[in-house]
Design goal:
This protein is of the alpha/beta class. It is 49% helix and 18% strand. The protein is built from 20 helices and 16 strands.
């Protein structure tokens, strides 16, 4: 459970204020995520805007914590040695690389706009005026990032917040806390007007979901600078005003593309300009954010392969995520979908990753094996005629088989893929084809899982005999295919030794899943090792999140 900091009244724009803002924003979005998901009707009624914003903010918070060498999400420690520039740039970068969905991508660009101003020298500007300029730049850059801006959305709320902040700033001596509060009030007022600006919101009787999340983030900023919770928090115990539930929305009648495609892209700016034009011709909801050679690309298309290929032409796309909207729409109306995947995952970050790929997830905490009832419940929540079940570990297969038998008695066709690690589950999920035949899909997923060697790093709790010799408490154990293969004293050396052995028999793709306490620098060193020693091998890196092992490695 996260414990948010108790901010002290302070009108300084410094690294500590950014850290507090980040922690409060994660906490506020965590409280509001289900309410925001429930009112998500635009641009696609897939009930994930709150979750996407929360995961984006969490990624930003994690990057900021690492840059400032402080624990993430609210543990109070000093950041006196860090500069404001370092803090805001790390915060924006973390949002960029972890942005989820349309709303999360826009939030990342808003934070980049803030960093573009606060990351430079103030040049005689007071903190209030500086903050107002940062919010103005944020809104401007967000509008530019969206191929076809629509009013009544998160963009409108951002622009209104910036305008109110500029009014409040006045002279250069204006207080930053007053400017932040004005921005928050302006955002709340603009949010209340969104149903009258966008027909889809008006029909559903809700405010814009992305704008709702932005109000929560601005409320956190106000609280970080003033030490006082925003008005909506104080009165209702919530980060955002909660509208009445949406009326039934026939999402399929909205038309629009069937897939959401998101990827990070390393490319030069001229190539990205050409990419925008190419993707704009393929679909809608195009948002391209970032700069300085690293971009986050988001688009809705009917041909996801063409969208990825356009990225290949522009540069190097990676962390590619493709989500099919059809199943989410049918589930929202209570209809059964044809096929679904249920995955047992050892980490909240992995749960989010698999959820984005369309899977229904069951979280496995360390030392715990979910019971059959939990898996049966997940199969029922998937609401499908056919289910592919990924148990995640050898110790979970018996429970998965029992759950499958119960589900079959309910008339659901279930196949259990014999995965022994989360990375095998990711490999299986990557080839999942909900449009093909059930048998062919199961065969392809089984083959992908079986072709993936898996490794894991763990820390020995006591002296013990292992297949690699005697380990002592505190030693780092490197496991390959379930057996201890390496005993080391540190994560770096053990991880490289494990990876070297796994690649000894060849491979085309290395998947790294980092635990919550493991720095990104470890992944960067392992990626560099692969690039220098195995030129034909690609590497992808994910965050496992809370409850995940220090490091999982997959070699396909």
């Amino acid at each position: 459970m996260q414990h948010e900091p108790q901010p002290q009244p302070a009108d300084e724009l410094d690294a500590e204020a950014v850290r507090t803002w980040s922690s409060l924003a994660v906490a506020a979005l965590g409280r509001a995520r289900e309410d925001i998901d429930a009112i998500n009707v635009y641009p696609v009624a897939d009930a994930d805007t709150g979750t996407n914003l929360y995961l984006t903010a969490e990624s930003a918070d994690r990057a900021l914590a690492e840059a400032l060498k402080t624990p993430p999400a609210g543990v109070s420690e000093t950041t006196a040695d860090a500069t404001l520039s370092e803090a805001v740039r790390a915060y924006a970068h973390g949002a960029l690389i972890g942005a989820r969905g349309n709303s999360g991508t826009i939030l990342a660009q808003l934070l980049r706009g803030v960093a573009d101003v606060l990351g430079d020298e103030p040049a005689g500007r007071g903190p209030g005026r500086l903050l107002a300029e940062a919010l103005t730049r944020a809104a401007e850059e967000a509008y530019r990032a969206v191929a076809h801006p629509v009013e009544g959305t998160m963009l409108t709320v951002a622009a209104a917040a910036a305008a109110r902040a500029a009014e409040a700033a006045g002279a250069s001596g204006a207080a930053a806390a007053d400017v932040a509060l004005a921005a928050y009030d302006g955002a709340r007022a603009a949010l209340a007007d969104t149903p009258g600006q966008l027909a889809e919101l008006g029909r559903a009787g809700v405010v814009d979901a992305g704008g709702c999340g932005l109000v929560a983030v601005l409320g956190a900023l106000s609280q970080a600078l003033s030490g006082r919770p925003p008005a909506a928090e104080a009165v209702r115990g919530r980060a955002v005003p909660v509208p009445r539930p949406p009326q039934p929305c026939d999402a399929d009648e909205q038309g629009g593309p069937a897939y959401e495609v998101i990827y990070l892209l390393e490319a030069a700016e001229p190539a990205v300009a050409e990419l925008r034009g190419r993707l704009d011709g393929l679909g809608d909801s195009l948002v391209v954010v970032g700069g300085d050679g690293l971009w986050n690309v988001h688009v809705h298309v009917d041909d996801p392969g063409a969208a990825v290929e356009a990225g290949v032409v522009a540069g190097r796309p990676y962390r590619i995520r493709i989500t099919h909207f059809g199943d989410e729409r049918r589930r929202a109306r209570g209809e059964r979908v044809q096929r679904a995947v249920v995955a047992v995952v050892p980490g909240e970050g992995l749960a989010g990753l698999c959820g984005e790929a369309g899977a229904t997830t069951v979280l496995a905490r360390p030392g715990e094996v979910p019971d059959a009832a939990a898996l049966v419940d997940a199969i029922r929540r998937a609401h499908a005629r056919e289910v592919v079940l990924l148990p995640g570990g050898a110790d979970q297969r018996a429970v998965a088989s029992a759950a499958a038998e119960q589900a079959r008695a309910d008339g659901v066709r279930v196949a259990v893929i014999p995965t022994r690690s989360a990375v095998q589950g990711l490999a299986a999920l990557a080839v999942h084809d909900p449009q093909g035949s059930f048998d062919e899909d199961v065969v392809a997923m089984t083959a992908a899982a079986g072709a993936t060697r898996y490794g894991e790093l763990a820390v020995a709790e006591r002296q013990s005999f292992t297949s690699a010799g005697i380990c002592q408490a505190g030693d780092v154990l490197g496991l390959i295919d379930g057996d201890v293969a390496v005993i080391g004293s540190g994560l770096d050396e053990t991880a490289q030794a494990v990876l070297e052995r796994m690649l000894g028999s060849g491979g085309e793709l290395v998947t790294l899943v980092l635990g919550p306490e493991v720095p990104d620098a470890l992944a960067e060193r392992l990626e560099a090792y692969v690039q220098h020693g195995h030129l034909a091998v690609d590497t992808v890196t994910y965050r496992g999140g809370r409850y995940s092992a220090p490091l999982l490695i997959g070699v396909e």
